[in-house]
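Appendix B, record 7
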Amino acid sequence: MTNVALLKRAAAITAITLLSLIILLVLTASILLGTQSGSRWALGLVPGLSVEGFSGRLGGAWQADHLIWQQGQSKVEVDAPIFDWSPACLARMTLCIDNLQTGDIRLQFAPSSDAAASGPITLPDLKLPLALQLGRVQIGSLHLDGTEQVRDLQLAAHWTADGLKIDSLHAGRDDIALDLSGLLKPEGDWPLTAEGQLKLPDVNGQPLSMALNIQGDLLKTLKLNAQSKGYLDASLVGQLQPLVENLPADIAITSDNFKPSADLPDTLQLNQLILNAKGDLAQGYAITGSASLPAEKGPVALALQGRIDAKGADIAALDLTASDNQRLKASGKLDWQQGLRANAKIDWLDFPWHRLYPLIDEPQVSVHTFTGEVSYTDGKYLGHFAGDFKGPAGPFTLQSPFSGDLQEIFLPQLELEAGQGKASGHLNLQFADGIAWDTAVDLSAIDPAYWVAELPGSLAGPLRSKGSMRDEQLTLNADLDLKGRLRGQPAVLQAKADGADNKWSLNALDIRLGDNRIQGTGSLQQKIAGQLDINLARLGQLWPGLQGQMKGRVDVAGTVQAPQGQLALTGTQLAFQANTLQTLSLAAKLDNAQRATVDLKTTGIRAGDTALGALSVNGQGDIKRQQVKLDLQGPLLKLALALDGNLGQGNWRGRLASGDIQSGGQDWKLQQPAKLERLADGKVNFGAHCWVSGPASLCGEDQRLLPEPRLRYHLKRFPLDSLAQWLPKDFAWKGALNADIQLDVPAAGPNGQVVIDASGGTLRVKDKNQWLDFPYDTLKLTSSLTPKKVDTSLDFRGGKLGELLARLSIDPIARSKPVTGDFTLRGLDVSVARPFVPMVEKLNGKLNGSGRISGSLLAPQVNGTVTLNDAEVSGPELPVSLEKLNVQALIAGERVDLTGNWRSGPAGQGSIGGHVAWADALDVDVALKGTHLPITVEPYAKLEAAPDLKITLQGDRLAVSGKVLIPKGEITVRQLPPSTVKVSDDTVIVGQQTKQGKTPLAIAMDVNVEVGQETLSFSGFGLTANLVGHVHIGDNMDTRGELNLNDGRYRAYGQRLTIRKARLLFAGPVDQPYLDIEAIRQTDDVIAGIRLSGSAEQPTTTVFSEPAMSQEQALSYLVLGRPLSTNGEDSNMVAQAALALGLAGGSSTAGKLASGLGIQDFDLDTSGSGDKTAVVASGKITDKLSLRYGVGVFEPANTLTLRYLLSKKVYLEVAGGVASSLDIFYKRDF
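Structure tokens (predicted):
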């Protein structure tokens, strides 16, 4: 056999041998791991391992009841392990663990004797030869050395080329739960990317959770970004080095607003909260923070600075600052290395605490300064405090050292100084076993007004008290003896009492203030004996605002098991501030059979200006049965109620036996007795019952009043006119009201529904002496309440009043009470308002609108649209008529944008646009434009105008700018109205009081007025002309410009004069123009005329001529058209003309003279023409008798006329002059 053959044979034998060995190993492993008996044998080979209740095979799925591994002092216990893996996965180089479950795992390790290694922790690079796939991993809880570390651990993950992919990780501890997913690469710096949710324990009933995002390297730095929701809405950003020595970290927490408790007022909310922590465990973490508290009258700043480490905490500063002179500073240290030690300081300076907590009334005593120090060591403390306070009567101080422990506190030198008064003493308070006290204080000239402003005075004397309260047993010894003066009256307060268990003695009680006295004694041995005499002769000496007198006596007797007593108390002319009680009588008695009676009677009850009448209450009964009757007789309300019931085993079960309530014309009577009970568990129940008044009824179902009320009421056919006494006098409401209330009020919040239906009624409004009716079809209000939401809807349908549908939802839990809703308005006919605007003859149009409601309950925001369509506003007293008026109002919260247009007359058009806002202050910006607008001022003017104005109002400043064109029109003045007569600024009207009003609104104006572009004619007082000109109206109606009267003619005294020049010059107030007017008459080559110049209030009239000549000759040419004759007749006529001219100019003086003679409505005018021209004065002597006197200008003829009204249409007239007459006239209007 050759060598090659031998080698081949040896190789074959070797291969067969190796294969046999591998097969043998596989068979052996299969026997050991693939069978239950083999698995048990294999587990038994592990040192220190014991398994109870094993079943299954190690090469597949197995489970056990209990597994324990112990080596030395280290021990691992696993309850109910379950393990299932797939060996077949090894063929693809993957370890597949399908299921790994355990109950509790308890780990105990021996304490390490090696010194802790310094420096950061290092982790090796993990490169597994196999891929890893985890199906389900669940651990009930993990305990380390007896302390639970984690609960309900669940993990699903798989190993990839990128590292360990954590599909889901859930772990919990106490009320904390963590859900996480991410990727961990176990090599290099071990980079980690993870995100998840951390649920923290609820705080004050509010949930708290945190969304986590972690990026970084496990061996270096991890960056943390988290957002918390629920109790605290905040952002947490920072970084930490988890495996570096002493755990360095830098964390910042920010929150826009945070309120630690929902019960706190909004003024204690932390706004702009910032909290930073930076450092490590060795050097400590430096803590800084700041926030702003939105206190009343301005915010208060909060600042925090300190340090915390493993040994303790050092709060360097905790400051609250309202201003430079208003602050609260606190500092302190905590040391918990060996026991607990603490030191704290407080420094208070006029800190306005009530601005932060306004829920209670601010006390009369305020803290000016307060300083305090306390040191605490292992349950014992020692300190000192001192404060300066301000009371109603002035400042006072309080100070004392103190010491104690968890069982007692001792104030050995308590001192109070107030002005000249002083109180000093000691106080020892023990609370280890019950409560015990020992105090002694000496008062010297103490003024109680330092604490109660209504009790000024001075008191002095000793106060001693010693006692205890243990096991519900009281022991007391008290001695009080104060004397002095209060409210200007002598005062005495003496009391001596001592006792223990069931033996007590009140040796003396004497309270005196002025004429008021309360005295008494009492004792409790085997029997009760005591009396109290009350003699309050002048209640006004006791308290401000209190009046009247009261007298009475209290006597007690019997035993503790069967006490007896009686009370008699009377009062007269009792009053406190605006509330009065004419008489009061109270009598009560408890006899030896334990039967009690109470009789209360009062008369003349008044609350302010409201008289309530007389009240009487009568009760009687014993420990088992009771009954009470109540009767009130008043002008507004009459009430009669009767109750009776029984008491047993802590339950009072009774009934409302009868009831009668009369008010507003209604007489409500209880139809049948109703159950009323108060049970021992605190529940108060009210049975089903009904009240009836005429056709109206109010019925309640069985309901619970306390706790968590459950109310069910139904109101039917309640007459609305019975509400008249609570409504305005010029408003009435006719109809019937129905309502249903189903309301539960548990601790979580109200839940139920309220429905109010007043459909089919009539709203009545009184205009002058006439009632105007506005019937409507539907008026229904529905409100659904839940603890987290209140939904309310309003449905109104009223014919001409239109339809209004509104929906509103309120969130009652949120701090701002946000509201959401919408509304719809359809078909409101504006003609319903016409009776309230008498100057309007036609008023038509429809209002429609819709929108949404948002914001908060106290500051709602409305967004929507309201439109007025095809409206018409006109009337003879209105200068402008509006036709086809369309206005749209866009409402956007606190702003309304207006757009509108209208037509007026045959060619007139107008438009309006702008906005009105009121967010911070009233802001108005409106543009008004128009063309060919007819303006009528009866009976004077008919004009055509074209305005282009901008009107703004910001705060108290009104501005008007733009231009107004008045191109044409007619102005005809026949007689000026009485309103044009101006009262002098210095005139005082007797009997009329001047109202002190607001400062007049400042008006900034920039308006240009153009007149007479076409033809604007004027006719009046004998003058005809065309107006042309331009004026500028500035601030406060300051007017600059010029108006000209062109083509003018003037007729007076029988002559027609030509207006040669007529100008109105404006250089100041609009009602004070400067006149420059010339009216002439030309005869041949002579021009004579009248010149009117000066201010409109006091014009100057002169006669002139061209060429120049004497005044008499000029006036002759003006009146006669020729020079004076030589016979003297012309001189008389000119003199009379001059006289008439003077009288006309002096009408104001003549009017004052006539008023002095008792002539009313005096008027001075001219009548006739040519030679018949006369000056006429007229007036009224009485309402029926009038006087008229005329003086001829060119003829010496005087006429006197008296007219007397016999009726509205018939009057008698007597005339005397050149001819006399007596006439009866009948007047009829056509």
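Remarks on this record: The longest strand covers residues 957-973. The chain is about 5% helix and 65% strand.
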